[in-house]
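With this grant's support, we have settled on a layout for protein records. An illustrative entry appears below exactly as we store it:
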Amino acid sequence: MDLFSQLILVILVTSFLSFQWLFHRVSPWVSPRASPGFLRLADQQKVEWNSRTVSTLHALVVGFFCLYILLFDDAVNEDPVWGDPTLVKINVGMTTGYLISDLLLIFYYWKAIGDKFFVVHHLAALYAYYYVLRQGMLPYFANFRLLAEFSTPCVNQRWFFEVLGYPKSSKPNIANGMAMALVFFLVRIAVMPLYYSRMWSVYGTEAFYRVPPEGRAAWIISSVSLDVMNVMWMHKIARGCYKVMCSARRHKVETRDNGKTD
C-alpha cells in the first residue's frame, strides 16, 4: 500500500471515529445547551436528534469541500474519468467514514432511526466509492454526487422543528420548508441532466473503456439507484411543502375573518 493510500485509510478511520464521537459525546452535551427542548424528548427521539446533528455537520463539511473541487480542481473537471483524484479521494474518504459510522448506528438503534431506504442509499454510495478510493476512477462523478449533501441541513432542520413542537404553519417552519424544497430540487433533481449528459459525453471513449466492467456497473447502478430515491423523496417533499403552504394560507384567512368578525 503506497503512502497516499495509507493516508486515505487514516482519513477514513479518523472520520469514522470522529462521527461516532460527535454522536455519542458532543451532540448529547451541546444539544441541551443549544436547545432546552432536547431534554423533553423521548430516548428514541434523542437518538435521532444526535444522528441528525452529526448528519448536518457532515453535510456542511463535505458539501463545501465538494463545491471547492467542482470550482477549482481543473484536473478533475477536464478529465472526469481519470483526472487527478487526490482531493476527491480525501473528500470521499471522509464521507465513507461517515457512511460506515451511520450504518452502524442505524443497525444498532434500528427502532429509533432504522430506515431501509437509508440503508440502500448508504450501501449504493459505498459500493461506488470503493472504486474511487481503490482505483481513483471517476473522480468528477463521485464528487458531483456529494453536491446532494447541501439539502441535508434543511431536511434535518425540518425534523428538529417538528419534534420541538413548532406548528407547521409557523414562519420558521414555512421558511425552512420552502428552502428545503428549493435546495433539494437544485442539488438533487435539477442537476441530473448535467450529470447524465457528462456521463454520456465520456461513454464509448478510451477513458471509459479503461474502467473495468465492474467499475462501470458500480457507477451506473449506484447513480440510477440514488436518483430513483431522490425523485421519490422530492415527491414527498413537494407534497409536504404544498400541504404546509395550504395550511398556512387557510390559517391566514381564518385569522383575518375572525378579526373582521370581532
